[in-house]
Design a protein that fits this description.
Layout lengths: L3 H7 L3 E5 L2 E6 L1 H8 L3 E8 L2 E8 L5 H9 L4 E7 L3 H9 L6
Antiparallel strand pairs: 1-2, 3-4, 3-5
């Protein structure tokens, strides 16, 4: 299937194949753990403006950066995003699913 959300929800194992080449074969969870990029999107108040900041969660120092933001009165919102099979496929193959 080209529907990665469907593959993630229904499959025990997923294979990434592009132009006859096998890029990956594993469970959706293992692929996301090994190759997914996790991030937090912070919205911080700076004067009269809301400034958005993306914090990569898989990098050293991200915990301290998040702790500082959470302890700040200027934090408006925080949202986390996990890696998706689609983003991993694109990173591995260099191609989008519609190409």
């Amino acid at each position: 299937t080209h529907d990665m959300a469907e593959a993630d929800g229904l499959s025990d194992r997923v294979a990434f194949v592009n132009e006859g080449r096998l890029y990956a074969l594993d469970t959706p969870e293992n692929l996301k753990l090994a190759h997914g990029k996790r991030s937090a999107r912070l919205q911080m108040r700076e004067g009269d403006e809301i400034v958005e900041q993306i914090v990569p969660l898989d990098e050293e120092g991200s915990g301290a950066q998040l702790a500082k933001a959470v302890g700040s009165d200027s934090l408006v919102s925080i949202h986390t995003q996990e890696g998706t099979l689609e983003s991993i496929f694109i990173a591995m193959t260099g191609r989008g699913l519609a190409e």
